[in-house]
């Protein structure tokens, strides 16, 4: 049984999740990033990529043999059967890899950074859940600027994610990221000390 104290960290698009994750790293905390894991499980040579090619053909590969994510997205976007198949292939692979990485961490606790932590019911993997929160208008402004995207696209992504209320309901701790990076920095430092205390008081199972 893995005894790592796992702190799930999530937030909607444009909430500042990456900024918060980077701040935890400055305190020497190991981070398991679901986005990185999702890329790892479909690298050339993996069973994940092999299964995708068997299902969709070589059109989902780029010339260097890596997965053409844009092409795959196009194929599954309007086909719910294909999308469900892809999710049922990837989700167990991602979860297994995350558990492996969590077991390998050596800091007092580890951060499990997952954009869809609430939506994919991955809160069950966590001892505590931290939500990076800001107003929806701030999310929209930040995401449009960061991704050089149009408002409609970002709104569609926000609509597909859990609502702000759903995320907050799942939170043990909330990092308010409506103002400055300095404010977020202070909140992370304070929370880090609380989590250190919690992790050291949690008996190994």
UniProtKB/TrEMBL annotation:
Its main location: cytoplasm. Pathway: Cofactor biosynthesis; coenzyme A biosynthesis; CoA from (R)-pantothenate: step 5/5. It catalyses: 3'-dephospho-CoA + ATP = ADP + CoA + H(+). GO terms for molecular function: ATP binding; dephospho-CoA kinase activity. ATP binds at residues 14-19. The keyword Cell division does not apply. GO terms for cellular component: cytoplasm. Its EC number is 2.7.1.24. It is an enzyme of class 2 (transferase). The keyword Nucleotide-binding applies. It holds the Pfam family CoaE. It comes from the Bacteria. It is found in: Cytoplasm. GO terms for biological process: coenzyme A biosynthetic process. Keywords: ATP-binding, Coenzyme A biosynthesis, Cytoplasm, Kinase, Nucleotide-binding, Transferase. Belongs to the CoaE family. Catalyzes the phosphorylation of the 3'-hydroxyl group of dephosphocoenzyme A to form coenzyme A. NCBIfam families: dephospho-CoA kinase. This is Dephospho-CoA kinase. It comes from Alteromonas genovensis. The gene is coaE.
């Amino acid at each position: 049984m893995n005894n790592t104290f796992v702190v799930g960290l999530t937030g909607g698009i444009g909430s500042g999740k990456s900024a918060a994750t980077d701040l935890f790293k400055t305190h020497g905390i190991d981070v398991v990033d679901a986005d990185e894991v999702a890329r790892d499980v479909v690298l050339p040579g993996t069973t994940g990529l092999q299964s995708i090619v068997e299902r969709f053909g070589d059109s989902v590969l780029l010339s260097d043999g890596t997965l053409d994510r844009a092409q795959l997205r196009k194929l599954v976007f309007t086909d719910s059967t294909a999308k469900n198949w892809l999710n049922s292939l990837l989700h167990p692979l991602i979860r297994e890899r995350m558990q492996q990485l969590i077991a390998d961490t050596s800091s007092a606790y580890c951060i499990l950074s997952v954009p869809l932590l609430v939506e994919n019911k991955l809160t069950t993997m966590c001892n505590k859940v931290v939500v990076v929160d800001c107003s929806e208008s701030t999310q929209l402004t930040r995401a449009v600027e960061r991704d050089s995207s149009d408002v409609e696209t970002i709104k569609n992504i926000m609509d597909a994610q859990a609502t702000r209320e759903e995320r907050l309901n799942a939170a043990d701790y909330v990092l308010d990221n409506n103002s400055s990076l300095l404010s977020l920095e202070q909140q992370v430092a304070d929370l880090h000390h609380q989590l250190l205390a919690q992790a050291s008081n949690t008996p190994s199972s």
